C-alpha cells in the first residue's frame, strides 16, 4: 500500500508566502530622514519653495539642508513664507544642530516641542508671529544651545529667569517684542555670553540695569535701546572687559557716566544719547579703540576732556586717522566721531 504524504510540516514555500505580510524591511537612515522631511513638508501644505524635496533625491542634496557625514544637521528655511505651526516630527531629525525658521508666518505660542531637539545649538525664530510668554522652563531647550533669536515677534510677559540656565549660550536676541514684564538678573549668569540684544521693547516694566550684567566678561555686544531702563549705569560695568559695542540710547538712565566706562580697553562704539545723564565726562579715556561716541540729548555739563582729542585710529594701510570732535551746544549734547 503506497504511503501518504506526511502532514507534519508545510512546505517551505508555503511558510514564506504565509509570513510575508508580517515581514518588515527596515528603512535605511536616508529613507527615514527623507520620510520625516516629506511629512513635515506635507504638514506645511507642500509649499512651492520646497519643490526640491522629493522621493527621487537624497535630502543632503536639497538646498535647505546641511549635512555632516551624510546626516542631516541643519535646516535653513528663512523667508519661505511658511504658515502654521512647527510640527513635532522636526525633532525626529535626531542630529539636528541648526534650525533657522526666521522671516516666516509661524503662529501660536513658543514651540515647546523643540525641547525634544536634544542636540540643537542654533535656533532662529525671529520675524514671525509667535505670541504669549516665553515659558518659565525654557531651559529645557538643548543644554548645547549657543544661539537663540526670538526677535521681532509678539512675545509678552516676563523674560523668564530660566534663560540664565542655558550654560553654553553665546548669542541671546530678544529685540522688538511685546514684553510687558521684566528681564531677569540671571542673564548675568551666562558666563559664555558674547552678544545680548534687547532693544525696542518699550513695554518693559521700568527697571535698572542689573549689576549682575557686569559679570559678563566675554560680552562684546550689548544693545538695550528704548527698553525703559532707569537708574544709573552700573559702576561694575568695568567687568565687561571684552565689550566692543554699547548702545543704551533712548532710555531714562540718569546720574553720572561711570568713570570706568571709558577705561574698557576694547570699547569702540558707545551710544548713550537721549537719556538723562548728568555730570561731566569721565577721565582718563583709556578706550583707545573708540571710533564713535554719542552722548547727545543728555544733561551733561563741564568741558570736553582733552583726552577725547587724543583718540586715534589707523586705517588698513597704517595711516593716521584723527578723531573729529563736535560740540552741538552748551547743554552737553556731544557727539564724537573718529573719521
Automatic annotation (TrEMBL):
Coiled coil: none annotated. It is found in: Cell envelope; Membrane. SUPFAM superfamilies: L domain-like. Residues 1-26 form the signal peptide. Its main location: other. The lineage of its organism: Eukaryota, Viridiplantae, Streptophyta, Embryophyta, Tracheophyta. Keywords: Glycoprotein, Leucine-rich repeat, Membrane, Repeat, Signal, Transmembrane, Transmembrane helix. Residues 34-68 form the Leucine-rich repeat-containing N-terminal plant-type domain. Belongs to the polygalacturonase-inhibiting protein family. It comes from the Eukaryota. InterPro entries: Leu-rich_rpt (IPR001611), LRR_dom_sf (IPR032675), LRR_N_plant-typ (IPR013210), PGIP (IPR051848). It is a single-pass type I membrane protein. GO terms for cellular component: membrane. The keyword ATP-binding does not apply. This is Leucine-rich repeat-containing N-terminal plant-type domain-containing protein.
Amino acid at each position: 500500500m503506497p504511503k501518504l504524504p506526511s502532514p507534519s510540516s508545510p512546505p517551505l514555500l508555503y511558510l514564506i508566502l504565509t509570513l510575508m505580510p508580517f515581514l518588515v524591511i527596515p528603512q535605511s537612515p536616508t529613507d527615514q530622514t527623507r520620510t520625516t522631511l516629506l511629512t513635515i513638508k506635507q504638514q506645511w501644505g507642500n509649499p512651492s519653495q520646497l519643490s526640491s524635496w522629493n522621493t527621487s533625491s537624497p535630502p543632503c542634496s536639497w538646498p535647505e539642508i546641511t549635512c555632516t557625514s551624510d546626516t542631516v544637521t541643519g535646516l535653513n528655511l528663512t523667508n519661505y513664507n511658511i504658515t502654521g505651526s512647527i510640527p513635532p516630527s522636526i525633532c525626529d531629525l535626531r542630529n539636528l544642530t541648526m534650525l533657522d525658521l526666521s522671516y516666516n508666518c509661524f503662529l501660536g505660542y513658543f514651540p515647546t516641542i523643540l525641547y525634544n531637539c536634544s542636540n540643537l545649538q542654533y535656533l532662529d525664530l525671529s520675524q514671525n508671529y509667535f505670541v504669549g510668554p516665553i515659558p518659565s522652563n525654557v531651559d529645557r531647550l538643548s543644554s548645547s544651545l549657543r544661539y537663540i533669536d526670538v526677535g521681532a515677534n509678539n512675545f509678552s510677559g516676563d523674560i523668564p529667569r530660566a534663560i540664565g540656565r542655558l550654560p553654553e549660550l553665546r548669542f541671546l536676541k530678544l529685540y522688538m517684542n511685546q514684553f510687558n514684564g521684566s528681564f531677569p538678573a540671571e542673564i548675568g549668569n551666562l558666563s559664555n555670553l558674547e552678544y545680548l540684544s534687547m532693544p525696542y521693547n518699550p513695554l518693559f516694566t521700568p527697571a535698572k540695569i542689573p549689576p549682575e550684567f557686569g559679570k559678563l566678561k566675554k560680552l562684546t555686544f550689548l544693545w538695550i535701546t528704548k527698553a525703559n531702563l532707569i537708574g544709573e549705569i552700573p559702576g561694575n560695568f568695568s567687568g565687561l572687559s571684552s565689550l566692543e559695542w554699547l548702545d543704551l540710547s533712548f532710555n531714562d538712565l540718569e546720574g553720572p557716566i561711570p568713570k570706568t566706562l571709558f577705561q574698557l580697553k576694547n570699547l569702540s562704539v558707545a551710544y548713550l544719547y537721549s537719556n538723562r545723564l548728568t555730570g561731566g565726562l569721565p577721565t582718563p579715556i583709556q578706550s583707545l579703540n573708540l571710533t564713535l561716541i554719542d552722548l547727545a540729548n543728555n544733561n551733561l555739563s563741564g568741558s570736553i576732556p582733552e583726552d577725547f582729542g587724543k583718540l586715534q585710529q589707523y586705517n588698513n594701510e597704517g595711516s593716521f586717522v584723527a578723531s573729529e570732535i563736535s560740540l552741538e551746544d552748551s547743554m552737553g549734547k556731544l557727539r564724537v566721531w573718529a573719521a
